[in-house]
Amino acid sequence: MRELEAQVAVLLKRLQELEGRQAKNSHTSNQPPSQDKPWQPKSERQKTGRSSGAQPDHPGNTLKMSAHPDHTVHLSVTGHCTCGQVWDDIPVDTQVTRQVHDLPAWQLQITEYRADVKICPGCHHRQRAPFPTHVTGQVQYGPRVHALTVYLNVAHFVPLERTSEILRALCGARPSDGTIALNLNLAADRLQDFESHLRTALTEQPVLHADETGSPVNGKLQWMHVVSCAQLTFYGQHARRGRAALEDMKILPNYTGILVHDAWSSYFKLPAQHALCGAHLLRELRGLAEHHGQVWAGALREALRTVYHELKAGTLSPEARTAFERRFDELLEEGLLANPAAPPVPGRRGRAKQSHGRNLALRCQQHRCAVLLFLHDRRVPFDNNQAERDVRSWCVKRKVSGGFRSAEGGQNFARIRSYISTLQKQGLSVWEGLVSVFTGDVLMPNFNL
């Protein structure tokens, strides 16, 4: 009878684990949103009572009249008035204006460079006038065509063949896949100085965010890493996810500031001061409370949300902060009591696998300072949204156009994408920046932040 009861207990525990795994989504675990089932997930936002959409004081953003139109079309009143008066004989009283904002017709402009050649009458030396540095072939595309191919492929993840089709439809040019690939290689090569300055600038920031996501290369899983802040973004493509990749990127191994991340073990081996993402913790606590009936997890989640919103609103008192930290420790102890340590499995080497609830409680205890750092340092955000926003574009790229054919292609793409993201964050023109790459005078962002 006792053996039967023990087997039933084991099976019930296994059933609960499987049901919890089946119910996981991006709002109850670290699972990406792309794997969510097709229904509306729950939000962590608190209701404000305001209606959805733009608020009454929202300034809006509408198309405005231009003070300097490129073309003006004059429309005269002709014919006769209903009384028989000829309108041509009547002076204009006033005018009503309307404007149409449209694109000009796209057509390639062909510029022919004619270099004079002269022969010295004395020594018969032949001398040719130099061509501009960006004019290297007898017939070639110009820097704006090159920039547009890179812009479509890297900024908007349009595959090579479709990029060619877009250019053919717009302006009659159809560069080959090989030409676009050469453009990517050339742009990455000319952005080496940018990347060097970017690495140095990131190591000098007080707070950095880090994350990683899968990035297939030639059908095999590799990893795209991001290290960023509000004004700078570094992407690095690498075959490994852990310490080897971080060392090759040459940023975080020398960084001693505050690093916000999602508790990936490799980050804890770095010399930085650590801050853990509170949004990840809330999702995991929700999963334990809703799918495993862990009361302590629900209570800790609500306490954490409350203290975060009070801190954000500026209403968190020192006494409330101290009370929360005391409650935080108490709930973790409850979590450990609710999830006792699993005994060693006879005949199996190594540590016994522990439940998710116990692992989470132990992690919060072990890294208590990193979890609660946002309470004591206003520079530290509650979540790791900065890195997650930066890594999201890579997930979109993976969905739209897949992975890369070679590791070099992934690394080139990462460097160009770092440049584009950094320009966007600083309000600089991505288009002008990419054109400058192909004219030989690279537009550099501000690294002295």
TrEMBL record:
Pfam families, A to Z: DDE_Tnp_IS66, DUF6444
Residues in DUF6444 domain copies: 4-62
Region Disordered, residue ranges: 19-67
Protein origin, superkingdom: Bacteria
Listed Polar residues bias regions: 23-34
Occurrences of domain Transposase IS66 central (ranges): 139-411
InterPro entries linked to this entry: DUF6444, Transposase-related, Transposase_IS66_central
Protein name per Swiss-Prot or TrEMBL: IS66 family transposase
Organism listed in the record: Deinococcus indicus
Upper lineage: Bacteria, Thermotogati, Deinococcota, Deinococci, Deinococcales
